[in-house]
Target: TAP42-like protein
Amino acid sequence: MDSQQNSSLNSMFLTVKTNLEKIESLNIPATSFEYQELVSKSLYLLEKCEESVEKLALFSSNETIEDYQTSTLEYLLIPILKSNLLKRKIENRLSLLEQSKDEVYYHKIMNGIKFEPVEQRKIKIDRFKAERELKNRIENLENKIHITQQQSLKKLDNENSENNESDEFDILDEVDDMDFLQRDHVVLLLALKAKLAIEELISIKSEVDLLSKIQNHSSFDDERNRSGGSDNRTEKRGKDVSWKLDTHSYTSGPVDFNTRNVGGKLLDSKGKPIQTFVITNNRTLIKEGVFKPGHSLPTKTLDDFIEEEFARGNVITGGGKEPEPKEDPDDNDEEAINAETMKKREWDDYTDDVRKGSGNTTNKG
Model:
């Protein structure tokens, strides 16, 4: 039974990784049905993976990373992948963000972070360099694994074609080497995801704070509207702009000028307006469509972006090469002295023949 569950867990996790690759490669909006459907399916499979991991009791707080098999280590990525997918959903944004953070690690990391600008900038640069180094090491390991697999397949084909029995010790050595490479790859991947998770938690905190303020502000406005507690300034402002804005739809019906209900024709038979109107009635709809959950908000300040560009080495500092100072002609070099003298004489002749300002004939006919 355990072997069947383990096999099912492996297949589900493999499907999730394939779906994540598809999501990253999709060139469609995050709000599209196809994108959101793929995210929902992957989340469902990850929840099933979590249940299987719990049933199989694969992990324990008393064990270290050295105690786990290589095939089991990869399942430690499930919470990180789930958090990543939850952030890609668009409905109930605040609730999803709360789900995507682990409360224990969230408060531990947030309390340990120093928010002084200078120290925070230095921490970000150091973290960026560490992430870049990890990515390079992971890429090198992936290339090495690919080459090793190709060599093993080629060797196996040659042995099969020659009908020779392969040496058992050679096969075991190759399996051990491959397992060692794959284990290093998973461990480095876990280290990279852990560093990226810190950035994600900081980003989640900023977005949660912003959405909470917006929600509280909206709740306050709704409560004030229900209680009818608007002040005189609000009422006066409403009267001042009532002739400018029109949120009613232009449907057929009589016009009541006392209640300012809009309906029927805008112009009479002589072409004169019989009611207040605006050119378009889509202004409210357009206003409500701004900054929806799918809208991409800035993730970093200009200072942070410039610091990262400096860290990547994409910024050229300093000016160009300074011009070499012009050397004075040697007193013993007659050719250089004669050339300098001729140049000065030509300039004197030119200034004698051409009057100063004679070339500027703009607006003088």
